[in-house]
Prior knowledge:
Blueprint: H1 7-26, E1 28-33, E2 36-41, E3 46-50, H2 57-90
Antiparallel strand pairs: 1-2, 2-3
Amino acid sequence: MLPNISIEKAQLLKQKIEDIKNTLDQEVITHSSNGVSIEISVLGNIKKISNPLNKNLEEIIFILNEAIAKARQEYEVKQAQLLQKEMMNLM
């Protein structure tokens, strides 16, 4: 259970959450499968798709879903770690 925090600390925490999202959007992971390479931020935003073998869209959608799932897992872990650190700083 979280202790009561002041409005100022709550506003600061809200800003820190936005900062965390911005940080995680800058952190890029690469997922490659069947000749297609996808760069995606940990936040889940696609940064670049390389398709040198000209795979069709149906194949790329499957690979995109894999990359997004990987990014979500990373996001959950990293967001929790950064948020925990910020909460400790507020206490």
